[in-house]
Specification:
The protein has 229 residues and is an alpha/beta fold. The chain has two domains: 2-152, Alpha/beta knot, CATH 3.40.1280; 169-224, Trp Operon Repressor, Chain A. 31% of the residues lie in helices and 19% in strands. It has a five-stranded parallel beta sheet with strand order 2-1-6-5-7. Strands 3-4 form a two-stranded antiparallel sheet. The protein is elongated.
């Protein structure tokens, strides 16, 4: 998979993709992440990429021309399955969306700044708009990093134990059950006996029951939305 990210602050994306699972995914040749500084592709002086809003109002808007130039340059080299714009008014990102995106080959992500990007770019280039939550960030870079991480860890061969992702929270519409490790008795706080019984079927049944209980207590809406897109 290849992901190209358009940004005015590429430095913000150096760390998230240089460590841990994302670093391993790239080292194994399973994921390519390329950042592109929008200021390097603007025809305007001093790297200008934003201007005042037509009609007035507070806040600057990212201009259409620099974005169109860079998007079309990237499109000339490859076909993109999705061109994603990170925006608070996009569709809320969830595990189902991450699963679907992990099956794509080439993805482009546009990181907004200021008051956002000119609407004409959204109308003529963007194929998908994503929000990671009902709040506003200073820019789309951190949101893009979240999306790339969620997608990248699902690629076959990225995780050392490929079954691990199958049991993450939200994969089956439920929160993950409690997890424990050694020692079995820590300060008198003991691991549930069922996890030490050695019977995989009983353990699996317990975990499913605990997932249901935790979901009902903490995120009951997930049970109500089960089966819905």
């Amino acid at each position: 998979m290849r992901i190209d990210i358009i940004t005015v602050l590429p430095e913000l994306l150096l760390s998230p993709f240089s460590h841990s699972i994302m670093k391993r995914a790239q080292a194994r040749g399973l994921l390519e992440v390329h950042t592109h500084n929008l200021r390097d592709h603007t025809p305007y002086k001093q790297g200008q990429v934003d201007d005042y809003q037509f009609g007035g109002g507070a806040g600057m808007v990212m201009m259409p021309e620099p974005l169109a130039i860079l998007i079309e340059k990237l499109q000339a080299d490859r076909k993109y399955d999705e061109i994603i714009y990170m925006t608070p008014d996009g569709k809320l990102f969830d595990q189902k969306m991450a699963n679907k995106l992990s099956l794509k080959g080439n993805i482009m992500i546009i990181c907004g700044h200021y008051k956002g990007i000119d609407e004409r770019i959204r109308e003529h280039f963007v194929t998908m708009e994503i929000s990671i939550g009902d709040y506003v960030l200073s820019g789309g870079e951190l949101a893009a990093a979240v999306v790339v991480d969620a997608i990248g860890r699902l690629l076959p061969g990225v995780l050392n134990d490929e079954t691990s992702a199958l049991f993450d929270s939200f994969q089956d519409g439920l929160l993950a059950p409690p997890v424990y490790t050694r020692p079995a008795d820590f300060r008198g706080w003991k691991v549930p006996d069922i996890l030490l019984c050695g019977d995989p079927k009983k353990v699996e049944a317990w975990r499913h029951e605990e997932s249901l209980k935790r979901t009902e207590e903490r995120r009951p809406g997930l049970l109500e939305d089960d089966g819905k897109e």
